[in-house]
Amino acid sequence: MKHLSGLDATFLHLETPEMPMHVGSLNVLDLPKGYKGDFYEDAKNFMASRIHLADVFTRKLALMPFDMTNPVWVDDDDIDLDYHVRHITLPRPGTNRQLQQYVARLHSSLIDRSRPMWEFYIIDGLKSGQVALYTKVHHAGIDGQAGVEVGKAIFDLEATGRVVKPPRSRPRSSGYQLGMAELATAALRNTAQQYVKLFKMAPAIARAISGIASPDEKAAEKDTAAAPKKFNLFAPRTSLNVSITNQRTFAGRTISLAETKYIAKHFGVTLNDVVMATVAGALRHYLADNNELPAKPLVAGVPVSLREAGDQTANNQASMILVSLATDITDPVQRLKAINASSNSSKSTMKRFKAVILDDFPTFAAPWLVSGIASMVGRSGLVNLLPPAANVAISNVAGAPFPMYFAGALVTCYYPVSIASHGTALNVTVQSYNGRMDYGLIACRRAVPDITEIGDYMLAEHKLLMDLTQKHPAAAGAAPAPVPPKTVHEPADDEAPAEAVAVAAKKKPAARKAAPEKAPSRAPARAPAKAPVKAAAKKAPAKAAARKAPAKAAPAKRARAPRAAAA
């Protein structure tokens, strides 16, 4: 058996029917040319040969007596693949929006805790002829970076796959769960070890706290100069910061990784700063549409990995910092620089605490109490009254820079599907993959009924930042970066061209109504590897564009996108 750390178990204790605590991804796959088989059966056989490569697929929870302390992971030697790997066929016409809506519904249901806590779905019926893979794994056993390592177990670098050595045979255990006495003894032993660890770290924790109370003067001056001038203790309240239901809505968008790096290098900021600026600009437009943009800047909760280099353990090793999104600043470039300053200040503070942040802490007699409080807070409406710590969660995960294959099919995209929580109804997670930045937006459907608008505004904000690199000089000391080549991005069927969205965004904000059903089109085509995938409609005179563009533009007729070349 293996004990869950305090941080891992927290994702179990905080889980309620309204707030499932699993993460996942949506991948659209290109089947091999001329493929005539049953991909669901092939995928199931493929997983049968791979599940022993990652612990998350073969372990389940053993709960402690009376739920007095954290559960433990135990091996499950009876994996029911027909349960864990499932098959869904979309109804006609099989559009990209239908796929994303179905993923949102699948993501809203809890994972069975009596089995290994993962589910894979093979989804066909897409009008493009492609198939989709939706995965979900409970956050108690994995974080973003550990998820990348799990991906290495199930994805290949070639369509032909690789030879995987079968697992060693082991004798089957006689019992379905461990005995009460065995669990109670293990719980007491682990709790004692946690208290000893906490006692040993007490001096280091005290030094870190005293360092914050009286920091080095030079470091303090540097942080004060870099810190934003309008950062508040609490974030302003918006329609995103409410108690949520179990209903979900999801949207995926793709932005060029090469262009994102170019923007970051030109303005002398980090890639993550550009990601946050893209989301900040989108939220600024989205809230202004309904005349609810607050005077104070929005705040993002940003996960920070505590994982040491080379650590591939399938658990959670992360903390969180708060970063101002500077949505009170009109100029996009100044907003980007303010985000960079706030991020640097928060990271500097985190570095002082990083060595003493505990991911394992005593929880004796706490699990049932934490679960009760989480349920009460979510259903009482208390979240609607308290000031939020953050308005939105934004996470950026570095993925594979090369094409990957699943069961012989090419993975064309890697949209993350994360967690919406009480008080933070919108989560934006970004995964880089093969020259792309795939944005996954997940939210409570009642709080954010028109999530596709946020996705469209993100494309427009990225294009605006890209255009501004031609009008603003490069940051001091920044080496000139080559301008990424211009390519055509074929927007998804729920996505308006970025130019049209940008024109609509400049118009006078009007009250937002419920999002209408978008006209179906075809599922997303694969973008060229390591090439920009932003929308690029033909340019028209500014006056004509402003006169003809509707407030909510529909996708224009598009040419077939070129097929991706395997690296």
Automatic annotation (TrEMBL):
Ranges for region Disordered: 475-567
Enzyme class: transferase
Keyword Acyltransferase attributed: yes
Catalysed reactions, semicolon-separated: an acyl-CoA + a 1,2-diacyl-sn-glycerol = a triacyl-sn-glycerol + CoA
UniProt xrefs under InterPro entries: Acyl_transf_WS/DGAT, O-acyltransferase_WSD1-like, O-acyltransferase_WSD1_C, O-acyltransferase_WSD1_N
Extent of Basic residues compositional bias: 536-561
Pathway: Lipid metabolism; Glycerolipid metabolism; triacylglycerol biosynthesis
EC code: 2.3.1.20
Protein name as it appears in the record: diacylglycerol O-acyltransferase
Organism the protein comes from: Variovorax paradoxus
